[in-house]
Amino acid sequence: MNNYIREPINGLTHLLGALLAVVGLVLMITKAATTESVLAITAVIIFGVSMILLYSASAIYHMVIAKDRAIAWLRRIDHSMIFVLIAGTYTPFCLISLNNTLGWVLFFVVNGLALLGVTFKLTWFRSPRWLSTAIYLGMGWLVIFFTGELAPTLGTGGMVFLILGGLAYTIGGIIYGFKPKFLQYKNWGFHEIFHIFILFGSLFHFICIYGYVL
What we know:
214 residues
């Protein structure tokens, strides 16, 4: 902590994530517009906005210096946005890649779980760290049951980036859940490294959606 930013590395890395998410949103909308599909445009807007919300909430929480009560609520919002990002990331795959009854079912299931997750985080924030991590990862890897339907539309390249994104989030989640002390080096620790893995997860999924879904 310094006099201006409470957690400089964590705050600035995810501020960068928020800015990159804005750029990514513009790029996706521009490309989706060429398809003249309202559904495609809507899907990428949902994904892009979910990234902006997650990284903005995280940046604000880690940067702002405020009273403990305010910080506690910012932390609740920060953690709740993880569910929003998961649901937002699923949206282009559900509505563009699948674009059938199965896609819509998955869309509503994931968004229902995200709503429950946000409620869970806002009402029982002191839940065990491992439980939150397990819920995040369980929602994220739900897609594995739909790889048979997604693979033909995404192709090998798309599946590679989809899986890389999932692995980056998973490694980050495991690091966050177990807080390994051996990762501590000067101002870097498990939390800072967790943030980097989350950025890479979003980057891989953006590449997948921009390059192979649209």
